[in-house]
Amino acid sequence: MANNPCSVVLLELGVAAFDQSGGLVASKKFDNAIRSYRLLKSGATPDEIRSFIEKLRSFDPVTTNDASVAAALRQAGLNSQSMPEDQQQWIQSSKPSFLVKAGFVNNEQDAMQALREFAINLSSSRVKEASERLDLHIIQSINALDELDKVINTVGARMREWYGLHFPELDNLVQSLVAYAEIVSRAGLRENITAEILQSAGMQGKKVEIILDGARRSKGGDMTPENLAIVKRLADQVIAQSDLRRVLADHIEVAMDTVAPNVKELLTASVGARIIAKAGSLARLATLPASTIQVLGAEKALFRALKTGARPPKHGILFQHPLIHSAPKWQRGKIARAVASKVAIAARIDYYRHAGKDSSIQDRLNTRLTEIREKYKEPIPEKERERKYREHAQRQQEYGGGGGRGRGDGDRDKRDVRKKKDRRKRFGKRRY
Amino acid sequence: MESDAIRWISVNGEKNAATLNLVKGDSVYGEKLVKHEGEEYRLWDPFRSKLAAALKKGMKNMPIKNGSKVLYLGASTGTTVSHVSDIVGPSGIVFAVEPATRVARELIENVASKRKNVLPILEDARKPQSYFAVFGKVDVVYCDIAQPDQTDIAIANCAAYLKQGGVMLLVVKTRSIDVTMDPRAVVTQEASKLEKNGFAIEQIINLEPFDRDHGMIYCIFRS
């Protein structure tokens, strides 16, 4: 039955098939245009066009203007091909008239209207879908957590300061903000502080005695009931906000397990969430190079380094990782680089594979960490370090890239190519 | 200015552009509505919109006119799109491309759903072939995207959708291309890239003081 061609055109509102002379063979207007259009684009065949495809059985070959339609036709066993470029362009440029010809709309005016409606609905459905993504909720959670911290600290400091007018000694005796707030909230005036209240606020043994003793001989002034009432309410705020903070932290912990378990494994939930927040989404993090991840959160320092040739930052948010901030200073850059490279891989696994934890990344990171700790046990003496840095800067200049380069370097393109090749050679085998 | 939809209106001693409001009484992003010769105009803030800045900085002629078809890349929340929509009027059309869903939400709510000549497209400008619902060739491509390869993206879009002799307005965000280079050198470099790709440069406008390190290239598509 070969050589009985027809062409299938995917339009926003449905699909239509035309024979050689341009006559309409079959058409199907989508009942739910947005759903069917998106289904098609995602590689599936929506049910509503199955009977339409059946009507094309007698044609061979079937050409089409859309790759996903071609795939759907092929799946149904038809000999389908892509339309030549110029024909596709022609369809694209006369789309309103095609919509009329296919019988989806009455005239071109309606066609434009329908296309616009389609565009708005499709865009809205995408916006809606994007707002449901779990990583966006993690980003909101971690940002809320950071802001709560600020609030708790400022309100807490104010409460301490204010209550300090009445019982100044308490400030030095109770470190924890929440414990302090609980004492203020439950006892109020210092003479009402009891051992029981202190114990329930987490004070133990001798501490209780010291505080009670302090209350008895305090140098603080008296406080009116009105003032005390407000301080108490501040204290209640601190307690409530701290409670909320805990809920948020727990939530992030759980959410990270489902959204980015590998990133969480490497960075802990909070640092991992902050990295995702800084990148904008897990999808974006998964496409970032390790070098960028390494300095996320240190943009100011990075751009200063690029502009002035100063030393680039070693770490941004990653500094919050215990591995890095507890490491000796001279190892931090190396550890940050190793961690960043693993985070890059972990994010990709989380985003593309969705297959839970992969412990091999952690293992490889540990291997590298031991290596760094052994090889760089002692800091390089400053003189030596300066020499190395200068040499490095000079090398960069020779190759025409990176730090210390003057502005407006001529012949840059060629040099950049050479630089890339040389780097490969210098670093040899990739380790990840 | 040849388009009737643009007027220069004096506010507090300073002349500012304003566009004829297509949707009466509707202020899109908090801009002032003013009556002028019995018509309602929306003031166009050059600090918020680079196209307004370019007009104020002496763009020789405004390629976007009544009835124009415009492909707008980097629509964002639709501040400038709304003014472009005013200018092209009911007979024109604006295809507004924006990949980020967060800002597209506002684009759809505040601009596209109210203005019948705006068609929102949530796609990455790097893939012009994936734009749905776009038809025909356009008269003007306006490109305002902060990407290192913004010029290449603009060229690819023009190749797909700009008609012969059509105009492209390219906002060059020099800091997105190379922070270390002199902004003026970046603009010149991008301009020569355009020339190599068959564009004739008409005018290069420096957007200072409205936008730092930004330039606008006005060019005509020849091949």
Automatic annotation (TrEMBL), chain A:
Listed GO MF terms: snoRNA binding
Homology family: Belongs to the NOP5/NOP56 family.
Biased composition (Basic and acidic residues): 376-395, 406-416
A single Gene Ontology CC term: box C/D methylation guide snoRNP complex
Residues of the Nop domain: 259-374
Tree of life domain: Archaea
Coiled-coil spans in chain: none
Chain residue ranges for the region called Disordered: 376-432
Protein name: Putative pre-mRNA processing ribonucleoprotein, snoRNA-binding domain protein
Biased composition, class Basic residues, residue ranges: 417-432
Automatic annotation (TrEMBL), chain B:
Keyword field contains Methyltransferase: yes
Enzyme class: transferase
EC number(s) on file: 2.1.1.-
Methyltransferase found in the keyword field: yes
One annotated GO molecular function: histone H2AQ104 methyltransferase activity
Keywords of the record: Methyltransferase, RNA-binding, rRNA processing, Transferase, tRNA processing
Domain of life, source organism: Archaea
Family annotation (InterPro entries): Fibrillarin (IPR000692), SAM-dependent_MTases_sf (IPR029063)
One protein family per Pfam: Fibrillarin
Binding-site residues for S-adenosyl-L-methionine, renumbered to this chain: T79, T80, E98, P99, D124, A125, D144, I145, A146, Q147
GO biological process, one term: tRNA processing
Family matches, as NCBIfam families: PRK04266.1-2
Subunit relationships: Interacts with nop5. Component of box C/D small ribonucleoprotein (sRNP) particles that contain rpl7ae, FlpA and nop5, plus a guide RNA.
Family named by the database record: Belongs to the methyltransferase superfamily. Fibrillarin family.
Job description of the protein: Involved in pre-rRNA and tRNA processing. Utilizes the methyl donor S-adenosyl-L-methionine to catalyze the site-specific 2'-hydroxyl methylation of ribose moieties in rRNA and tRNA. Site specificity is provided by a guide RNA that base pairs with the substrate. Methylation occurs at a characteristic distance from the sequence involved in base pairing with the guide RNA.
HAMAP family per UniProt: RNA_methyltransf_FlpA
Name of this protein: Fibrillarin-like rRNA/tRNA 2'-O-methyltransferase
Gene source species: Nitrososphaera gargensis (strain Ga9.2)
Taxonomic path: Archaea, Nitrososphaerota, Nitrososphaeria, Nitrososphaerales, Nitrososphaeraceae
Gene: flpA
